[in-house]
Amino acid sequence: MNLRDLRYVVAIAEHRHFGRASEACHVSQPTLSGQLRKLEDRLGAPLFERTSKWVVPTALGQQVVRHARAALEQADAIEALARAARDPLAGPLRLGVIPTLSPYLMPLVLPELRQRHPGLTLVLWEDLTANLIERLRRHELDAALIATGTDGEDLIGVDLFVEPFLAAVPTGHPLAARDWVSEDDLQRADMLVLADGHCLREQALGVCGAPPPGGDDLRAASLDTLVSMVSAGYGCTLVPALAAPGLERRGLVLRPVDSFGACRTVRLVWRPTFPRQKALDALAELVRSVVPADLADGSPEDCVSSHALARD
User: Fold this and answer.
1) HEC-encoded secondary structure of the chain
2) pLDDT tens for each residue of 275-306
3) 162-258 belongs to which homologous superfamily?
4) If 21 and its partner were Cys, which of 15, 50, 294, 309 is the partner (CB 3.0–4.6 Å)?
């Protein structure tokens, strides 16, 4: 048994398909299938149930996959330690980012990263929070930028900045004439929210309350879709402050929200066993440096920020 065999087993368990697993491992399907048969012969029991359409781990296979992932993590950690000993800020860093943050933050981060740490390469994966956390726990990501807390002791993190929400309303909407809007204003408005699974959906509902009848008919998969609907006059929504630049050109009026809950805390999270702590520290410092100063220095108790007000 060797690390290559363990990588094959994990790939088959993740993809549930020999063809896709072999592509992920960069080997031919007969090679992967043959190595699996040899491993099963050595262990004396099948690791997967097979049909022409799917592959599913047996009870033994599920246990072997768990041990295989742990063994591969340790092997990767050994290689990472060696790389870190040479240069902790060199090589790829697999970073997950939530979709309501990635398009607005990463264009600020990446150019600065190239300037400060040219040897450090971010490999980005954009997904919903729950999926990013699962990938972190499966060691498919090294860290993630999210806007919620995490459960369990297997992940740790650091707060980077507090991002206020702004009310986005169409030109000519009654709220467009206000200097700021209140929770009551939003609860009476025709608010549009993201689909289930987006943390911004739950955070927006926490400020606005349940949508009015029919107001939850549109559950957009992206913030850009919500913005397009609002600019077309179909309702109002909340947008994070980093998304604000340029929205006025799309027929939107942005107003700060007078509510202590109208914000989110962006965090960097990772496994405590991840060996390249200096790379994570450098990334955290860089993110804090590229966001507006009032976000980096803000707190959840100060959500109506000068950053938000300056956009009026």
Assistant:
1) CCHHHHHHHHHHHHHCCHHHHHHHHCCCHHHHHHHHHHHHHHHCCCCEEECCCCEEECHHHHHHHHHHHHHHHHHHHHHHHHHHHHCCCCEEEEEEECCCCHHHHHHHHHHHHHHHCCCEEEEEEECCHHHHHHHHHCCCCCEEEECCCCCCCCCEEEEEEEEEEEEEEECCCHHHHCCCEEHHHHHHCCECEECCCCHHHHHHHHHHCCCCCCCCCCEECCHHHHHHHHHCCCCEEEEEHHHCCCHHHHCEEEEEEECCCCEEEEEEEECCCCCCHHHHHHHHHHHHHHCCHHHHCCCCCCCCCHHHHCCC
2) 889 999 999 999 999 998 767 665 655 554 43
3) Periplasmic binding protein-like II (3.40.190.10)
4) 15
